[in-house]
């Protein structure tokens, strides 16, 4: 996400009384909000997940085409460190399952700072690792797969800036830019060590190494990579090639993507016709070139027209977003021959002309593109809302966050998308039974 908020330390005042009261109120809220979810007999011991595979432009699960209605809750690991917060992890995953969602994208990193998973190069906080273990185990119980991102290009939760700071503390001479993350040999070694530790981690709750767990849908190398000190794109391309090859040397069972926003570089013929504005060609990334590597299984795209334009109205932004999505789906079909995932999309509530109905129109446009792609067996393989929360999580919110069930029209859009995709390619065994009943009674 363009401006993901930094995690903030939650207050621990109030002794035992307030946490107990808060927990009770939260459980009450979930019961009232989701009703039949709690009464549904979900046999968690019998859930069987298979690895998601790719064949050409489509994902497959157990031989069946798999198109994804997904969401972002980047905060899962960080929030799960405190045991009193864990009901919220369960709550959002159960809510996602109830809506027929199948994949959640979340952070598998927190470098330095508060609740850091990686305290310093090669040093990990077991308490935080167990929080990530819990998230994966809880996702498995609810039939939700996870897309796990391994580092941030942005400052939130440490990211590449923290790696550069670590190297400087060791006396490594670096440029003033945090783009040193991509080319410095010491920092590359730090990151490889981190990746190996995460991929080979044995979950204390399931006993399964991460690289062997089908609960993990895919790995994402880095969230929104940019290397602006090298607009040619060579530096970032070399990094992606080296790191993707390294990941695949450890884990060939899982899918892998880069984590791109989708911009076309100076070299691309689409730089002037498909990019939002001229600056997008100078970020050191290139959608086609970065995604073409054989070690990259699918391409990722983000959709934030209101952040990319300052002088367009809502209708113009909506029109651009449609063109943007179509351009990338065509790339998947004709150039890359790989699935295209719109792994973040959102509309800010801080726009001067913002109205809640605009979000529904924007969401519907994105979901319609994925549905039409699924109907035609094309490469537009899924979309992920940015971002979903539960009540009481203001510290983790930004101007894009929503609690889906608070707005019935939004909730209906999300659930109907699950129904439409299920009608095209079938309901997965892990999707809850009442989704079948809901879809059967809903005319789309």
Automatic annotation (TrEMBL):
GO terms for molecular function: mannan endo-1,4-beta-mannosidase activity. It holds the Pfam family GH5_mannosidase. GO terms for cellular component: extracellular region. SUPFAM superfamilies: (Trans)glycosidases (SSF51445). InterPro entries: GH, Glyco_hydro_5, MAN-like. One of its GO terms (biological process) is polysaccharide catabolic process. Belongs to the glycosyl hydrolase 5 (cellulase A) family. It catalyses: Random hydrolysis of (1->4)-beta-D-mannosidic linkages in mannans, galactomannans and glucomannans. It is found in: Secreted. It comes from Anisodus tanguticus. Residues 50-388 form the Glycoside hydrolase family domain. Gene3D superfamilies: Glycosidases (3.20.20.80). PANTHER family: MANNAN ENDO-1,4-BETA-MANNOSIDASE 2, PTHR31451. The keyword Membrane applies. Its EC number is 3.2.1.78. Keywords: Glycosidase, Hydrolase, Membrane, Secreted, Signal, Transmembrane, Transmembrane helix. This is mannan endo-1,4-beta-mannosidase.
């Amino acid at each position: 996400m363009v401006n993901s908020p930094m995690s903030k330390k939650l207050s621990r005042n109030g002794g035992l009384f307030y946490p107990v009261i808060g927990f009770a109120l939260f459980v009450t809220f979930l019961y009232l909000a989701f009703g039949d979810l709690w009464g549904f007999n979900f046999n968690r011991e019998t859930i069987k997940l298979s690895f998601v595979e790719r064949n050409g432009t489509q994902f497959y699960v157990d031989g069946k085409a798999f198109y994804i209605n997904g969401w972002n809750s980047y905060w899962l690991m960080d929030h799960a460190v405190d045991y009193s917060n864990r009901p919220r992890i369960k709550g959002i995953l159960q809510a996602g399952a109830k809506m027929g969602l199948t994949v959640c994208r979340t952070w598998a990193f927190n470098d330095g700072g508060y609740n850091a998973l990686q305290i310093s190069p090669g040093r990990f906080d077991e308490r935080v690792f167990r929080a990530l273990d819990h998230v994966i185990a809880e996702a498995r119980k609810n039939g939700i797969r996870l897309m796990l991102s391994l580092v941030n290009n942005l400052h939130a939760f440490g990211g590449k800036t923290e790696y550069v700071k670590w190297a400087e503390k060791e006396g490594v001479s670096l440029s003033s830019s945090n783009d040193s993350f991509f080319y410095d040999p010491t920092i590359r070694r730090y990151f490889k060590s981190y990746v190996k530790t995460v991929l080979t981690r044995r979950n204390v709750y399931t006993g399964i190494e991460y690289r062997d767990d089908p609960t993990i849908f895919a790995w994402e190398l880095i969230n929104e990579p940019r290397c602006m000190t090298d607009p040619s794109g060579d530096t970032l391309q070399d990094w992606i090639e080296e790191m993707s090859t390294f990941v695949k040397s450890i884990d060939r069972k899982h899918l892998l993507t880069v984590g791109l926003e989708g911009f076309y570089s100076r070299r691309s013929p689409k730089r002037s016709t498909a990019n939002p504005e001229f600056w997008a060609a100078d970020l050191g990334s290139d959608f086609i070139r970065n995604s073409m590597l054989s070690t990259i299984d699918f391409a990722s795209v983000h959709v934030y027209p209101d952040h990319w334009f300052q002088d367009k109205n809502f209708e113009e932004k909506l029109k651009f977003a449609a063109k943007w999505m179509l351009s990338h789906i065509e790339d998947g079909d004709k150039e890359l021959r790989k699935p295209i995932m719109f792994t973040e999309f959102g509309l800010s509530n801080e726009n001067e002309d913002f109205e809640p109905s605009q979000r529904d129109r924007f969401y519907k446009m994105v979901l319609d593109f994925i549905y039409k792609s699924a109907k035609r067996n094309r490469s537009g393989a899924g979309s992920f809302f940015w971002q979903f929360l539960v009540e009481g999580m203001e510290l983790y919110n930004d101007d894009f966050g929503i609690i889906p069930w608070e707005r019935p029209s939004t909730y209906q859009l999300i659930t109907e998308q699950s129904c439409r995709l299920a009608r095209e390619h079938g309901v997965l065994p892990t999707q809850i039974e009442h989704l079948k009943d809901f879809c059967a009674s809903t005319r789309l």
